[in-house]
Amino acid sequence: MISNSFYIARKEIGKEIAIKSILQILEYCQILSVGDTEIRNAFRNGFTDFEDGIQFETAIQNPAIEAIITRNTKDYKSSTLPVYTPETFLQLFK
User: Fold this and answer.
1) CA torsion 37→47→31→34, rounded to 10°?
2) pLDDT exceeds 90 at position 31
3) Which of 37, 48, 70, 71 is the most exposed place for a label (fewest CB within 10 A)?
4) CB 70: neighbour CB atoms within 10 A?
5) Which letter, b or e, does each residue of 8-25 get, where b requires 16 or more Cβ atoms within 10 Å of its Cβ?
6) Which pTM was predicted?
7) What share of the chain is helix, strand, coil (3-state, %, to 5)?
């Protein structure tokens, strides 16, 4: 999913700033591996959006993940993890 972020950022802010921005994000985030198990499970998990299904499967394979943050909460109706919009998630800390 970081590749999607880079693609969009590069188009909006240019390649060099996009690289710097992604590297800054990586200072605070860990990139999780997506493998055969996550892909196969995403085909079976009932999510209407395949990419969201992959993200969900990756999240549940990693016990440290307690929630999913997304702008598109409607595609996560099948999630067994709490799902927040970025705004809602930030409100938890006020």
Assistant:
1) 20
2) no
3) 71
4) 18
5) ebbeeeeeeebeeebeee
6) 0.76
7) 55, 5, 40
